[in-house]
Fold:
Amino acid sequence: MKPLLLFFVILIATPPFTTAQRTFTVGDTVCYSLTARDSSGAIIDDWNISGEDATITLQDSYANSDTSERSWNGDPDGYSWARMYHNGIELDTISGNEFIVPKHLFVNGMAEVCLVHTFANGSYHTSPVGVTASPSHPFRQQLPENLKFTPDTLDNFLLDLIPPNDNKNNAVYKERTYEIRLIPRDRFLNLNEQEHAIRFEVRYPEEIWCYGFHINSDEVFWTSFGYILPFSKRSRILPDDSLQVIKVYHSSKPWISGTCDPYEILDHPPTPFRLESPPNHSILSVNSGVGTEDSLTWERPDPPDPYWGVRFRGRVYEKIKYTVVFLDSVSLIHELRYESDGDGVLPRLTYTDQLLNAIGDSIAKTTTWDSVNLVWYVEADDLTYITRSTPPSPENGHKGWHITLVRNPV
Structure:
């Protein structure tokens, strides 16, 4: 049997292009004529009987690798895909980029197929889409020009909340800046990089502000893939609260819009923690001078705060500050406050006789005391919320442990 080949002739574009690449808008119909010829160039009229199924292959096409698999709205085709048709009937596929042209579709050795491709060449996928057919003869196949697909007109906006961590979807944290991805898109979800005048609508506008512009009033000019950076001043937590929602729309074409999913705004007080040492009702001997060092210690939970370890715009957020509070155990009014070791970072406070003497002098309001009764506790502060330490069994309604300072005779 003589070598067989498929000869491509593109049907669209009049007058013929002179370049090696043709440009179409996504969703356009691009049709081809497939002609079965032998090695001498003669058409094989009975290809539908003597031939075999042909395969059309798209090269450098990512249309069928789109993971959206659903439309933006009621449009069943409103996502990225590539399909081949014959007389309006979709051809079967071998893989995402391979289409079967059954031999019975050839009439007098020819068949017309049409490609609809809805994925645009853009910043991430710049290579044009190539189209090849098999079986073919390496010296006789005429390949059509490569195809470049450009986005269609603006159809919608993607407004997509970026969760600050993996603990909960559609939730952010009070008084912590978060990101919402904003992408202007065509019908098929391709990025539309033309400049668009847009405005925002917020369900609870008094509870939010945004870096760079007034989200509740400003008109913003947007050209590409990017982020807005809101900051919420009030918590909204299910099931008691209705959730926050942000909508974006085109200033002069308000029906072109996008809305983020409703989202919670979570509180994030530092994780509860307990005092460790010295135990409740400990007696500490106080000598004159500096003396030997020891420490007050407490738990450091993992994580110490719900927002701990959140990565935001390349930075990891880990901010907890500990303060040790000493109180007069009688009045519970007179207090002294000390940052923990490491400028408030470490879960301990190192003390010496010198520090204990100073605490005793201040609480007793005299330098000639013999013993002083104290209550101590720790505050964990994340710059928005404060959590106090929880002893195992508080005795006086105040969440702290007792210490008695006893001054040794000089």
The CA atoms of residues 98 and 127 lie 18 Å apart. The domain at 156-266 is CATH 2.60.40.10 (Immunoglobulin-like). The helical segments are 47-50, 341-344, 353-364. The longest strand covers residues 371-381.
